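Weekly structure sync, notes
Attendees: PL (lead), two postdocs, one rotation student
Agenda item 3: pending single-chain targets
PL asked that the sequence for the first pending target be pasted directly into the notes so everyone works from the same version. It is reproduced below exactly as submitted, 223 residues in total.
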Amino acid sequence: MRHRDIVRDYLSDKKPLTVGSIAGKESLSAPPEGCDVIELRLDSLGVGADIRQFAEKSPLPLLVTARGPAEGGQSPWSLEERAAAYRAMIPHAALIDIELRDFDLLAVVIMEARGAGVIVVGSFHDFDQTPPIKELVGKIDSRADIHKFALMAKSGRDIANHLGLMEELAETPLSVMGMGPLGAAARPLMAKAGSLLNYGFLGTTPTAPNQWPAALLRQTLEI
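Predicted structure, written out during the meeting:
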């Protein structure tokens, strides 16, 4: 699949990519300006015919996410329903995002994705704080191609810990971002420091607190 090769080439060059997230169906028609990858939040969008049709025709590589409720998911889906949603979209995906806490429970989905050449993003979200670096390092799982950490930033020390995490795991492909006003302000800094996947939103519906519009984020990264 051409889109998978494109993303792998970018990541092998350690090029920071802008991800435009879509959480509302009204945003499916939004021009994907300023992004390299489109994220489909299946926990908000579902996997109906309209979503599959969009995926089949997407001009950009797709990252598919069926977020669980424990880390901000918008659907009451059971684990089995999330697994079915992922499986339905694997044929169209260049990347798949699964919470690290669910790696064992969704091990079969991960195996199927990797077998299809899909890049696996292992993610962790903390909407309350930035845990200690040692605790975050302990979440690294060899089954993930990229590790994503989205952490609430309340102080300059938190931002320093985000940068410290990337320094500690310099040989591990990472996507690190802060949430909240301070974290949002520091997202361009994280990209410059080596965060590979940098998230904004397409259309009108942010998918995380204080998230940037994707086009604005991209413009800032190019300065």
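Discussion points:
- The chain has one domain: 2-25+32-203.
- The CA atoms of residues 65 and 97 lie 5 Å apart.
Action: rotation student to compare against the earlier draft before next sync.
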